[in-house]
């Protein structure tokens, strides 16, 4: 399999109106079309009120925590 | 509905239901050892949707044969023998994907035509919508296999051509059937072969190879 072309996607859902939208998981997919199918088929344990899938490299990171042992030089 | 109309509609619905029934089993048995976790989990979920659609179609056929019956419909334990040869003989992930795509495109075209005809029901329209996800899944995997390394693309091409030919032949037999057109099951202006080739061609479009480089 050619895994080089796979991209990371994150799945965000809202269980019902008024609740917060939370990140519930992630997966790898080759394109946005199949990512929408994977999200619905893999994370189908609830009847979500809202579901969104985002390509991870499209997320703009503002602040990212350091690794737990970063100060000791562990990456 | 005349007896002949009934028979034609039953034949069409049973073929689609049989393909879905057989494919539902294969998606679990073969899909469980898919190439990655995402593909496997989705395969099992798609199996549930295929088996659910098959049950709805078998129940409709039962009503066409026996009239509206209250209560529980009989449980379906095996297909009626109309499933495509290549679908029944699916042996591995490559042929599973090839057949999943061609059978879903076939049923999309036929059920789409029925949903535009006087025989349409709400559940058919819903089914056409739902199986679009199965087509996206199968198409994406067709593209991945067609662009893979080693012998995989060669084997895929072979399995895909076999599955395509069988589906085309089946559709052509209905396309050329005057009775169907007379009964408006497939509208006069619907060219099922053209629709099929259009969908099938989308696997090998330029975009298909764009992301695997």
From TrEMBL, chain A:
Source species, domain of life: Bacteria
Family annotation (Pfam families): PaaB (PF06243)
Name of this protein: Uncharacterized protein
From TrEMBL, chain B:
Record SUPFAM superfamilies: Ferritin-like
Pfam families named among the record's database cross-references: PaaA_PaaC
Gene Ontology terms describing biological process: phenylacetate catabolic process
Protein name (database record): Phenylacetate-CoA oxygenase subunit PaaI
Organism: Terrihalobacillus insolitus
